[in-house]
Amino acid sequence: MKKTKLTIVFILTIAAFLSFTEEKKESKLAMVETIVADKKPNIIFLLADDMGYGELGSYGQQTMKTPFLDSLASQGMRFTDFYAGTAVCSPSRAVLMTGLHTGHVSIRGNKGKYKNNYKRVPLKKSETTLGEMLQNAGYQTAMIGKWHLGVSNDDTTWAKERGFQYAVQEQWGENEKGEEIDERVHWVNNTQDSIFYDYNKYSCLDEFRTNFALDYLDKKTNDTPFFLYMSYRTPHAHEYFLRKTDLYKDKIEEWPEIERRHAARITMLDKQIRRLFNKLKASGELENTIIIFTSDNGPTNENYHDYKFFNSSGDLKGYKRDLYEGGIRVPMFAYWQHKIKSGTISKHQSTFYDVMPTLAEIAKIEAPTNIDGISFLPELLNKNQVKHKHLYWEIHGKGVKSFKQATRFGNWKAIRQFNSHHTELYNLENDINETNDVSATYPALVEKANKILKQESVQIEQYPFSGGVFKD
């Protein structure tokens, strides 16, 4: 009997000890989770240059290989209806950086008109950038790559002076003496101690840039959240400095060399982003980092490259500088371990000017007032998502024919060229390729579209066709 009682006491003691140990473990785990929850997430924004909707395997590409990006997209949320700021580099990036669409932002074309000359237009100092917003929220901020939002002879318009504490940017155009700047020169923190990109040393420009990112991640402060904006150059047609590569060597007889190099650049970018991801994983920072990948506009058709060769626009009509879907609808996915459900696909209609309020909400701060965007963080976290009444784009170049406007409301898409005296209307639900203009059938919808096109464009001096002033 004594032995039985002792056995029962022993068992109860062990059970109590195990229960206490388990409670201690759970308490410790809860404490760790609370610490992680209280710490602001790191943010990495990856921007490709001229990557079309159909140039990733996860968006239907059959020939060019992007295994890592496809894998990352499958582990996060992939957007089917995400749009760039507009259809060309500089204004699209201005939209991304300010949360203002191209009817409101200060940059609306790659160049603006100054008297009789067309020159680059910098962001206004009154326009808050992503870097400034997040730096003010206590983030370490870094920008590496293509800035394209300043003027070459005024470094107060460069990334370093617009909210990025660490900035490595290529610079081109003319210096104060009117001399052409070699775009292989990269300025680090706006200093004269610039670094020259040697294409004999690196496989591509994006390897060179990724090295800066890896170095930055090593040297930054570990107990402070960071925002890293990686502005890559792939697959821009004018990235001339590609080292000789054996990628796709089995296609040398089948493909023109310009197309083989195009495919090689995209696969090389895939490898560079894998390097960046592995660095985060090794450092233990991946779990508290959101990664967003997208492109600044649709695919290029320049420098003898044919965007149709790899079906770079997918099933969409048009390419870079078009306001048809192929010019502005771009690949976009977001990865955030344990936060974004793996393998999800979103049809939410979103765009570049939504990035600022989204990152503000991620950083648990208020976005600047009077911007045009709506945060898509609820969509990422599978919560109730507010939708836009309409999306808006415009694009400017030299001459009247270059000014175009577009809007999407629901599944309806309207496009108008300044001097056409006609607003095209398409139903994207059953005509994603925009082949059937139904404007004659739906005059009330055309009237609605014209009202949007007129009201959303505010006049600005450097863009003479701005202001929504077109003839009906």
Task: Describe the SSE topology.
Elements: H1 2-38, E1 42-48, H2 67-74, E2 77-79, E3 82-83, H3 89-98, E4 112-114, E5 117-119, H4 130-136, E6 140-145, E7 166-170, E8 173-174, E9 180-181, E10 185-188, E11 195-196, H5 205-219, E12 226-231, H6 257-283, E13 289-295, H7 325-328, E14 332-335, E15 344-346, E16 350-351, H8 355-362, H9 377-380, E17 391-395, E18 404-409, E19 412-417, E20 423-427, H10 443-456
Parallel strand pairs: 1-12, 1-13, 2-15, 3-16, 6-7, 6-12
Antiparallel strand pairs: 2-14, 4-5, 7-10, 8-9, 10-11, 13-14, 17-18, 18-19, 19-20
Describe it.
It is an enzyme of class 3 (hydrolase). Belongs to the sulfatase family. This is Arylsulfatase. Keywords: Calcium, Hydrolase, Metal-binding, Signal. With about 475 residues, the chain is α/β, with parallel strands linked by helices. It has three domains: about 40 residues; about 350 residues, Alkaline Phosphatase, subunit A, CATH 3.40.720.10; about 60 residues, Arylsulfatase, C-terminal domain (2-Layer Sandwich), CATH 3.30.1120.10. About 30% of the residues lie in helices and about 20% in strands. The protein contains ten helices and 20 strands. A ten-stranded mixed β-sheet has the order 11-10-7-6-12-1-13-14-2-15, with helices on both faces. A four-stranded antiparallel β-sheet has the order 17-18-19-20, covered by helices on one side. Strands 3-16 form a two-stranded parallel sheet. Helix 5 runs parallel beside helix 6. The radius of gyration is 25 Å and the shape is globular. The termini are far apart. About 5% of the residues have low confidence.
